[in-house]
Inverse folding.
């Protein structure tokens, strides 16, 4: 997978801006089930937000790394307690990167 350029990340951040987080990482942290759901969601949408809850024991950057690695996705941004992930879809490609 190629690394995203700054321009592509800016573009993806603007695309993600209006989205609501569809997953929450809490006390349980990152597990197989979460990774599997994230992979499915990325295949369907390409760009998703994950919210890291206050009760999560792991650092949000560690959570982002773990989910990104597990789902083989690019971390677009970690802002506040929200992680934005991108992965090009095989079946439902809808986002054209600049």
């Amino acid at each position: 997978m190629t690394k995203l350029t700054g321009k592509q990340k800016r573009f993806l951040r603007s695309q993600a801006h209006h989205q609501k987080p569809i997953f929450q990482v809490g006390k349980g942290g990152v597990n197989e089930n979460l990774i599997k759901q994230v992979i499915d969601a990325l295949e369907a949408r390409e760009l998703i937000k994950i919210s890291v809850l206050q009760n999560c024991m792991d650092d949000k950057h560690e959570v982002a790394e773990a989910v990104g690695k597990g789902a083989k996705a690019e971390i677009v941004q970690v802002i506040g307690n929200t992680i934005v992930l991108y992965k090009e879809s095989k079946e439902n490609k809808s986002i054209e990167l600049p």
Q: What stands out?
A: The domain at 6-86 is CATH 3.30.110.60 (Translation Initiation Factor IF3). The radius of gyration is 13 Å. Strands lie at 23-25, 47-52, 74-79, 82-86.
